[in-house]
Design a protein that fits this description.
The chain is an alpha/beta fold and 436 residues long. Helices cover 45% and strands 14% of the residues. It binds nicotinamide-adenine-dinucleotide and uridine-5'-diphosphate-glucose. Pathway: Nucleotide-sugar biosynthesis; UDP-alpha-D-glucuronate biosynthesis; UDP-alpha-D-glucuronate from UDP-alpha-D-glucose: step 1/1.
Length: 436
Amino acid sequence: MKIAVVGTGYVGLVTGTCLAETGNDVICVDIDASKVEKMKSGIVPIYEPHLDVIFERNIKQKRLKFTTDLESAVKKAQIIFLALPTPPGEDGSADLSYVLGVADQLGKIIEDYKVIIDKSTVPVGTAEKVHAAVAANAKVDFDVVSNPEFLREGFAVDDFLKPDRVVIGTESPRARKILEELYKPYVRQGNPIIFMDEKSAELTKYAANAFLATKITFMNEIANFCEKVGADVDMVRAGIGSDTRIGKRFLFPGIGYGGSCFPKDVQALSKSGIEAGYPFQILDAVMKVNQEQKTSILPKIEDYFNGDLKNKKIAIWGLAFKPDTDDIREAPALYIIEELIKRGATVTAYDPEAMDNVSKVLGNKINYALNMYAAAEEADALVIATEWSAFRTPDFSKLAKKLKNKVIFDGRNLYDLEQMKEQGYYYSSIGRTLIA
Ligand SMILES: NC(=O)c1ccc[n+]([C@@H]2O[C@H](COP(=O)([O-])OP(=O)(O)OC[C@H]3O[C@@H](n4cnc5c(N)ncnc54)[C@H](O)[C@@H]3O)[C@@H](O)[C@H]2O)c1
Ligand SMILES: O=c1ccn([C@@H]2O[C@H](COP(=O)(O)OP(=O)(O)O[C@H]3O[C@H](CO)[C@@H](O)[C@H](O)[C@H]3O)[C@@H](O)[C@H]2O)c(=O)[nH]1
């Protein structure tokens, strides 16, 4: 099938590449000319494991192309994916200007039947708005379908090629047939394509993200409570996670959820609730707890240094909002760094992939180390903000030689308490006994 993907960020580029992988003819459109040039010359502009291999293969096979020219790309395509940003507007609701702006242009371009598929995360009722925006200029028949994306950064390729489910919101039999055909190669293992109306599909995406964010936040509150009463959150997690009704996944406490999705989507759903006359009480609590959780490690650091962080040298391991990505949107590490700097500390950070992106935001407000041990050089304490695999099994003796004090504040609960006791570290983690 001939496909145009508009927007080549994490979702658009993965979608385009993975659709080319099953033999489709894909052209990806972006307004960012330098990004398009990079992709044309074979460079993947984001860090996403395993994407480079299939990206390269499909470019070689001439199934994957890039352009800034929306008109020529769309005219040749039967299917048009919109993978455009929907960032929070000033009031927290989703900003639809990117999606509706392109929809407006599409109406002027299309000359035959197209299926326009919204992959961006959008509030209930957006398909109707997109339909109206296209229809305002279109002289031909078209369908607008809601097909939310559930990929996780770091696992995006796998999630796209083998999705738990594909959700498709359409009431058009013609569009349904085309999408059934398109997604057939991705659901061979019996994972379902769930068809529904557009509004339910749009809400499914927000409900999934809000539920997962709530699950994490609930565990963060249980962890905070564990610290007050001397229980161990790892034990509680094991105890409840083995109940299949609860499940083992997304029960890991830490320094809050971040990323480009959970924070903005919880906020957007909350706004939609208010607009619809149903303010979600649970989401207000989730947002408040998560905001506090991001810097919950701060008072612990201050306590250790008797309230004075002036000129203390703090090493940070991990800047990305989670491992296996270079994405730093709403990364808890950035909130912690801001608070440390405010208190007069100096920060030296190391992240395997996200340092370039952070340096664009923080510049020389912090130091960037060449590796994890170099970051710890002469540091008064080490803070762990992202659970990259390399941080899970450090050489503790080597680390001890670098650090001024054997002190770790672990926002991701990477180490065994017994091990830290044996190694002689001061070790503060989330929802577990302090090793002092
Ligand atoms: N990042 C994720 O893990 C993820 C997962 C599922 C869903 N989503 C949703 O998918 C959507 C896209 O997210 P993302 O993370 O890929 O965004 P992104 O910011 O990484 O990428 C968006 C891309 O769109 C391009 N763009 C902006 N305006 C354009 C225009 N008029 N024409 C062509 N290109 C244009 C930008 O240059 C950029 O390359 C959002 O709604 C997001 O909520 C994201
Ligand atoms: O047990 C857990 C699991 C995750 N997190 C945090 O939650 C955030 C989000 O993690 P994750 O869901 O793995 O990453 P995303 O790439 O943001 O993916 C989420 O957001 C995407 C965008 O909407 C959806 O497509 C995915 O299904 C959804 O998992 C990160 O800060 C994690 O550190 C925890 O604190 N504890």
